[in-house]
Design a protein that fits this description.
CATH topology of the largest domain: Rossmann fold
Shape: globular
Number of helices: 17
Radius of gyration: 21 Å
Number of domains: 2
CATH architecture of the largest domain: 3-Layer(aba) Sandwich
Distance between the termini: 15 Å
Strand order of the largest sheet: 2-1-3-4-5-6
Largest sheet: 6 strands, parallel
CATH class of the largest domain: Alpha Beta
Strand content: 5-15%
Mean pLDDT: 95
Oligomer: single chain
Number of strands: 12
Length: about 350
């Protein structure tokens, strides 16, 4: 079986890396040959993460390259599309695929339809129905959580599957921490999402006055007066080791439509390394975190303070919650569980096409 995966980014893009690239070896073992063609080059992401201006000539060239890739779509049994073919453009390419009888699967791990229906830019807002139409015409819509799946169903999607964003258990393990006098409260993410740490900063300032802690930030820059902070760049090679060095993993979020579409991947990473977690009770976080079993859900500063105090004061509690979290990842949020599901789905679609 030959599949053409049309991702937004190369492996440098977290969403593309976790929703597509990490599946390639497992799918190959299941007899599915996937060719990946990203829309935007790595240099685009380097500029984005460095807050540099976008090179629009690159973007135009990359969009034209995608057009040429689509002209060869009939060589494949199935197209596997990340989110949409051409961001901020009408969904004409997806409609053309449907009109030509070329089946496609579309995958979502973010509520990108809110980029359109909640936009104050009129040129984007007029595309508010775009993602719904793409979902409706897809052979299958794969969603990272129920919030996204419900949108797909309401749009009239024929077949909706929920496949969470997961980790590879062969990469993530419990590890061992060296003894130290302070505790590390860790967060991993990107410059675009580091702003959520402002929600937990007041609690961290209170805790910092009570005991020796360090806020460890991986993948972005953050500073707040009164909080000892260590910011480190993200690399694939150091990612797991950095998380293993946390004592607690956190995922604060705002409670708004965009955040409700997030898939809680940070929590899965922390738990895979045996770390207890504290998270805002928003969207997928509510499903991943079992209150007082593998972590805590904290809605306000007082709850964040109480949760941090409980975990920082009790090493045995951290260990027990970490073990419970690891078990949840092994059962529900691992590549070893979801790869057979995805492969079966693709084979079913290929069989349906041949019939």
């Amino acid at each position: 079986m030959k599949v053409l995966a049309l991702t937004r980014y190369g492996p440098l893009g977290a969403s593309s890396r976790m929703r597509t690239y990490q599946y390639l070896p497992g799918l190959r073992a299941e007899g599915i040959d996937v060719r990946v063609l990203p829309l935007l080059r790595d240099a685009y992401l380097h500029r984005l993460y460095s807050n540099e201006d976008t090179n629009w000539r690159w973007v135009a060239s990359d969009y034209l390259s995608r057009v040429s890739h689509l002209l060869r779509a009939r060589r494949y049994d199935l197209l596997w599309i990340e989110k949409e073919l051409f961001p901020n453009f009408p969904g004409m390419a997806e409609r053309a695929l449907q009109a030509c009888g070329i089946p496609y699967v579309v995958d979502y791990d973010d509520a990108i339809y809110h980029n359109y229906d909640l936009s104050r830019n009129w040129m984007k807002h007029i595309l508010k129905q775009k993602i719904g139409k793409i979902m409706k015409n897809a052979a299958v819509v794969i969603c990272g959580n129920e919030y996204l799946a419900e949108h797909a169903r309401s749009a009239g999607a024929r077949h909706v599957e929920i496949i969470p964003t997961v980790v590879d258990l062969d990469r993530y393990n419990l590890g061992q921490m060296a003894p130290r006098e302070y505790r590390v409260v860790g967060w991993i993410g990107m410059p675009a999402t580091v702003r959520y740490l402002e929600h937990v900063a007041p609690a961290l300032k209170v805790i910092s006055k009570e005991r020796s802690i360090q806020l460890r930030v991986i993948g972005a820059q953050f500073s707040s007066c009164g909080i000892n902070t260590d910011c480190r760049p993200w690399t694939k090679e150091a990612e797991v080791g950095d998380i293993q060095d946390f004592d607690i993993g956190i995922m604060p979020l705002a409670d708004s439509p965009w955040e409700r579409g997030k898939c809680g991947y940070k929590l899965v990473q922390y738990m895979a390394c045996g770390k207890p977690v504290i998270a805002s009770p928003v969207g997928m976080n509510r499903q991943i975190v079992q209150q007082e079993v593998n972590g805590y859900l904290a809605s306000n500063t007082e709850e964040w303070i109480a949760s941090l105090r409980a975990l920082l004061a009790d090493a045995d509690l951290r260990r027990r919650m970490g073990i419970q979290g690891r078990a949840v990842v092994e059962q529900k949020y691992s590549l070893q569980v979801t790869t057979p599901r995805l492969a079966q789905l693709f084979h079913q679609l290929s069989h349906r096409k041949s019939v």
